[in-house]
Specification:
InterPro entries: KsgA/Erm, rRNA_Ade_diMease-like_C, rRNA_Ade_Mease_Trfase_CS, rRNA_Ade_methylase_Trfase_N, rRNA_adenine_dimethylase, SAM-dependent_MTases_sf. The chain is of the alpha/beta class. About 35% of the residues lie in helices and about 20% in strands.
Length: about 270
């Protein structure tokens, strides 16, 4: 999704929302203020916004920041941003956030990157996993996403929506759903509710090989209606599952992060 400036409705008319980019223009001033307050930008922060669109959120953030970075795929919007801001205030990275090297943004020594944005719903999960590659360089992340996605991200074991996304992101981040944003806050309104999520990297994640954990979790949740013994058949014996502290007759959505990490470490011990 992309935010847009509310005051000038002509701007919205000039740029028609493009479905292929997942564009919905945020026009609610109260929501914009609440998001900015949640982010709490401070002078000296190195901030990067994904998908600034018509710069509604960018404008808000630059009231507290001397400079920030944005990543925008839509070339028409890039041209607008170039006309609106001096390079001294805004560095514009024209391209796909899924391929962008967030580690290439210069950050002062002792500081880390702050990432914000309205993430397009159609690429939200792949983009979250791409950003996880830079978790060691990040201070925090604040995103607007489809409410259902945020609920999956923060879900606890035993929840019907707890799954691969929950486990993999909770391994690297402490996350919280801050508040829900209704469809009428956007133009055009999406068909679903949105939500703001805060993601703060875990200081000391459980030691584990990431790709191995991903393989275990993906296999476990590929047949979530089955008991975990059957889901992981061919990857682990029942004895190994028990050794990881898991009841073999439990279902995948009841197994916690630590147990999945223990399974992964049976396959490939953490370095």
């Amino acid at each position: 999704m992309r935010p847009a400036n509310k005051p000038d409705k002509k701007n919205i008319m000039k740029h028609i929302a493009r479905k292929r980019f997942g564009q919905n223009f945020l026009h609610d001033d109260n929501v914009l203020s609440n998001i900015t307050e949640s982010i709490n930008p401070r002078d000296g922060d190195t901030m990067v916004e994904i998908g600034p669109g018509l710069a509604a959120m960018t404008d808000q953030l630059l009231r507290s920041l001397k400079h920030m970075h944005v990543v925008e795929l839509d070339r028409d919007l890039v041209a607008r941003l170039e006309k609106k801001y001096e390079p001294s205030r805004l560095t514009i990275h024209s391209g796909d956030a899924l391929k962008f090297d967030f580690g290439g943004i210069p950050v002062p020594e002792g500081k880390k990157l702050r990432v914000v944005g309205n993430l397009p719903y159609n690429i939200s999960s792949p983009l979250l996993f791409h950003l996880a590659e830079y978790v060691d360089k990040v201070q925090d992340q604040h995103f607007m996403l489809q409410k259902e996605v945020v609920e999956r991200m923060v879900a606890e074991p035993g929840s019907k929506v707890y799954g691969r996304l929950s486990v993999m992101l909770q391994w690297r981040y402490n996350m919280s759903l801050l508040f829900v944003v209704p469809p009428e806050a956007f133009d055009p309104p999406p068909r679903v509710d949105s939500a703001i999520v805060r993601m703060i990297p875990v200081a000391n994640p459980l030691p584990c090989d990431g790709p191995t954990l991903e393989a275990v979790v993906q296999k476990a949740f590929s047949q979530r209606r089955k008991v975990i013994r059957n889901c992981l058949s061919g990857m682990f014996t029942e004895e190994q599952i028990v050794a990881a502290g898991i009841n073999p007759t439990d279902r995948p959505e009841t197994v916690g992060l630590a147990a999945y990490v223990a399974l992964a470490n049976l396959l490939k011990p953490a370095a």
